[in-house]
Write a structure and sequence with these properties.
This protein has 479 residues and is α+β, with helices and mostly antiparallel strands. It is built from 16 helices and 20 strands. The model is unreliable at 398-412 (pLDDT under 50).
Length: 479
């Protein structure tokens, strides 16, 4: 709060846009309009404004006696709901030989325009007035510039020693600016980091983006900053857990580990029958598509949430559940055509390090990659308020039932007529309990055609009756 000496200077100050003097004690509209105008700080001086009650325009004191009731009455302006957003202000009483002064100290708002009963008041020199449309636009633009995202804000609890500066230099500054420029920069590392938004020189601490990307132990400051991977044997969370791990650390450490996890554990290959003489290897998921979804989840996640990024692998699908729903201009009705960045500094750094492209084409490319790999389209659930979920179905789900003798809705492979005998025998060897109807559906032929070809295979006989029976192959009769 202001001191007595500073008040005496303000009483005769020429900075009239910062000071309003009055001898009135009951004109509440006048007081609230003044506080609203100081909050808006149209000159953008970032200096506090002062409503001084008990002084004439020439600075002379009126001899006012400030009571507790008057003090409470002026202090109540802050939260009576007439001025929105709520102003940041302090109120105090100062005693002088000539009388008391009641001073309301008002801080410039970071969220202008501030309005009193729906109207925006500003200071034009010594005068208070209502803002024009152009002046309101200036205040609105200033509001946007003040609204820093979480990743760009300073982490007051962190120090420079919490950042791996070697990693920041090699992985970010050099790719961003070039080795020659970085090596010739003689400024302290704090100033170099501040130039790219990774350090706050005013508070002498790194920003959250620096901790996310290059911090030694970022979970000390953001407890939810890790990836929880679980591999379930079945199709839901109630099934047996095959594998589980937590991937934590800064993004320079975690993102390569995520890529390795995909390559070594999640992406699998298996042979699929194409014709009687040929098989081809098929992936359960396209690597590039799942990588894109995971990296986007890391980029867009809510860093303030204590919930981890969940990456669950089931027998038939993958699920990625990301803390933080759609952000900014992105809404359910325009997703994925419109994109916005919850963590723009983190996103920019990930682009520089080659992890993302920021062209707003990731979702479209994911769907293309899935289609080319014969997966169904990814299912995005954007209805969740605090989370973003995507499910990707495995290609193996369709072929798994084929090996178990479960019929499919569409033919899985269609052998030529001259290959049908060998194809039937190979299917019976894989599954001795397969029926003629199931074989017919698998290859797109009629059951009578299957029965006709089986009758020619004298070394294959059906033992038992109905669904309890099975096929047997007499190897002594094989040609």
């Amino acid at each position: 709060m202001i001191t007595k000496d500073e008040i005496q200077e303000l009483l005769h100050s020429t900075e009239t846009y910062r000071v309003e003097r009055t001898v009135s004690t009951g004109d509440m509209d006048k007081f609230q309009e003044a506080i609203c105008a100081f909050s808006n700080d149209l000159p953008n001086s970032r200096k506090k404004g002062y409503l001084i009650i008990g002084a004439h325009d020439n600075g002379q004191l009126s001899g006012l006696k400030v009571t507790d009731d008057l003090l409470k009455k002026i202090a109540a302006i802050r939260s009576n709901g007439n001025i929105l957003p709520i102003p940041v202000m302090n109120v105090d009483r100062y005693e002088f030989p000539e009388g008391d002064l009641l001073v309301a100290e008002v801080c410039p708002s970071d969220l202008p325009p501030v309005r009193y009963r729906g109207r925006t008041f500003i200071r034009i020199g010594p005068r208070r007035d209502i803002a024009t449309e152009a002046e309101e636009r200036i205040l609105a633009e200033r509001r946007m510039s003040f609204m820093a995202t979480f990743d760009t804000t300073p982490c007051f609890a962190a120090k420079l020693s919490d950042i791996n500066t070697d990693l920041l230099h090699d992985k970010y500054l050099v790719p961003l600016l070039g080795k020659d420029i970085v090596d010739s920069d003689s400024r302290p590392i704090e100033e170099q980091m501040a130039a790219v938004g990774m350090y706050d020189t005013e508070h002498c601490c790194p920003t959250y983006a620096a901790l996310v990307l290059f911090g030694h132990k970022p979970r000390r400051f953001m407890p939810g900053l890790y990836v929880q991977y679980v591999n379930f044997r079945g199709k839901d969370v109630t099934s047996e857990v095959i594998n589980e791990m937590q991937l934590e650390g800064n993004y320079c450490e975690v993102l390569p580990r995520l890529e390795s996890l995909l390559e070594m554990s999640v992406i699998k290959k298996k042979p699929v029958f194409v014709s009687i003489l040929r098989e081809e290897m098929v992936n359960n998921y396209p690597y590039n598509a799942i990588r894109e979804l995971l990296l986007n989840a890391c980029m867009h996640r809510d860093l303030q949430s204590n919930t981890p990024l969940r990456f669950y692998e089931y027998a038939d699908h993958l699920e990625i559940l990301n803390p933080g729903g759609l952000y900014g201009n992105a809404r359910p009705e325009n997703f994925p055509s419109v994109n916005d960045y919850r963590n723009p500094l983190v996103a920019s750094a990930m682009k520089t390090m080659g992890y993302v492209n920021m062209f707003n084409r990731g979702v479209g490319q994911v769907q293309i990659d899935l289609k080319e790999n014969k997966n169904k389209p990814a299912l995005f659930d954007v209805s969740l308020i605090t989370a973003f979920k995507v499910n990707v179905l495995s290609t193996f789900e369709d072929t798994q039932s084929d090996t178990q003798g479960v019929p499919q809705d569409v033919p899985q492979d269609v052998p030529q007529e001259n290959e049908l005998d060998i194809w039937i025998e190979s299917r019976i060897r894989k599954n001795p309990k397969v029926t003629t109807d199931e074989l017919a559906k698998l290859c797109g032929k009629s059951p009578k055609t299957i029965q006709r070809h089986i009758s020619k295979l004298s070394h294959i006989t059906y033992v038992g009756s109905g669904y309890s029976g099975h096929w047997e192959i007499d190897h002594s009769k094989e040609k």
